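The records we work with from here on pair a chain with its fold. Taken together, the tokens spell out the fold as the letters spell out the chain. To see the layout at work, look at the sequence and tokens printed below.
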Amino acid sequence: MISKNIVFTKPGLAELLEEEVKPLGTNDILVELEMSSVSSGTEKANLLGVDRISPAAKEVSKTYPRRLGYSCCGKVIEVGTEVTKHKVGDRVALAWSTHSQYNVITEDNAYPIDDIDPQDAALFNICTFPMAAVRKCRTEMGESAIVMGMGVLGIIAVKLLRIAGATPIIAVDPVESKRELAIKHGADYAFDPYDPEFSAKVKAVTDGGCNVGIEVTGIGAGLDGILDCMQRYGRVALLGCTRNSDFSIDYYGKVHGRGITLIGAHTMARPKYESHGGWWTQADDFYAIKKLVKTGRLELKSLVEEVHCPCEATEVYNRLASEKFFPVVQFDWRKLK
């Protein structure tokens, strides 16, 4: 079987290539994609080869080809001989998939979605990232919260904080349209981090500072700025992937002396088998998101700003490589038919 796949073939170039589908393992399933979501930060870094191999790494990696697209959904069309969790015809959301017409993936990285809209389901894996950050901060009803960076992860974090009962919720982004979007999706206030009165404004609306912080930019200045807005004993989740370590923080004045907790919130830093307070498995977070969507408490597809045919991949990724502000984009694989 031949699959059309989006492949980063060299730095800055994405192509739609025809490739043979690999054979299924005994615990694998074959999924025909409906929708896949672009995770702009991770995919831009991989498209351009900007990796963090180690804390001391400074060189740009040139290892290609690369295949991204880790948040997708589709229909099961074949199962391995030992698969027990899925059957042919099931619709599933995928974790750690690729932008490929046909995905071969272990059954443990696929989750049933029933009749959920594919645009919602294609954001499920991405949604588990901020969900883990909100959980790890042990967010409680009535606590104030701040989210630094209003990309797709930041906006979803705002929506989840609202569901969790945080109040007020402060959204932070230098782009006015993104601040307006954050208000639309549940933030109580939205501020520009470059405003000279930024931290003072946050403290004024939160009785002295925030209890919970979600840092999504992955930029040193973002962490520095969010620390200026925290209450004593506040908790800050580092959700953004900081690929450049060349920055300094006054850790004594902003962290140590004020009792701030910094929490590593990479989605891989989670238990594999048993969920416990604040630390849930990937599977349990997937099922939690599914329940929130099905009961109408969480709506995701309105976050999508553009939908493209995979045949437009080269143009889409040229924009991702060059544009400073990139929209939330999905590929509709059904358009290939």
Summary: The mean pLDDT is 94. DSSP finds ten helices and 15 strands in the chain. The first strand starts at residue 2 and ends at 10. The CA atoms of residues 132 and 319 lie 30 Å apart.
